[in-house]
Request: fold
Amino acid sequence: MPELPEVETTRRGVAPHITGRKILKVNVYEPRLRWPVPADLPAAAEGKTVQDVTRRAKYLLINLGENELLFHLGMSGNLRIVAPETPRMKHDHVDILLEGDITLRYNDPRRFGCLLLLNPPTQEHPLLRHLGPEPLSDQFSGELLYKLSRQRKSPVKTFLMDQAIVVGVGNIYANEALFLAGIRPTRPAGEVSLKRYQALADAVRKVLSDAINMGGTTLRDFVGGDGKPGYFQQTLRAYGRGGQPCILCKTELKEIKLGQRASVFCPSCQR
Reply:
């Protein structure tokens, strides 16, 4: 499933190609995504110029001035820049044709993603309204995690993955950040000290920044906006390595289930 680094990689891949260009035509071949593509979306978008391409959590936002297009890649979706004459593949559901012979193409085999039309104020849309701070922004810190975690008995990993606390720290990156910070994922969030939350916030920033710089993590079929895979998977320290030796102390990594998600940790290094 594309997480924050994969979505940011996609944003960086498509933004230079479409920003400043006018949308000439929107072809919706399959509107039955997670939520139906609004019937008025093509008419609202056609003739508008792309002002900017931004990201909020795992949502991509294409600013058209009067409104915005919101994309979510779901479990297996991707956005690619292709030539207009490029033959459609089976799961290519939407084409946005722009001046300069540029096509932004949305592909989603499982159709768990979405394409919606947002009217201002867009940040008050139900999908965006209750999101926490961006992990790479100044609003995110160890102090914030410490403050919000007091009296919480849920595992720190579950707390870290709560999108109302901080956005975009999915399962892969939560495993990696907790490993770097030396915090066991099962520890109650309210029992983690301020000092350790400061280390965790630093670890979150490092893990996500590294993943973005490597183009994301290739799990299943993710590709960036340029059609190329990400390579962060090759540097994973914890996720997917249950039963293998810890890279720091050689202790066998344990794999458990937390909230139906795989959690891998070192019984020696993480406490």
User: Anything to note?
Assistant: Residues 176 and 238 are 6 Å apart (CA to CA). The beta strands are 23-28, 52-56, 59-63, 68-72, 78-82, 92-98, 102-107, 114-118, 254-258, 261-265. Residues 4-124 form a domain with the N-terminal domain of MutM-like DNA repair proteins fold (CATH 3.20.190.10). The first strand starts at residue 23 and ends at 28.
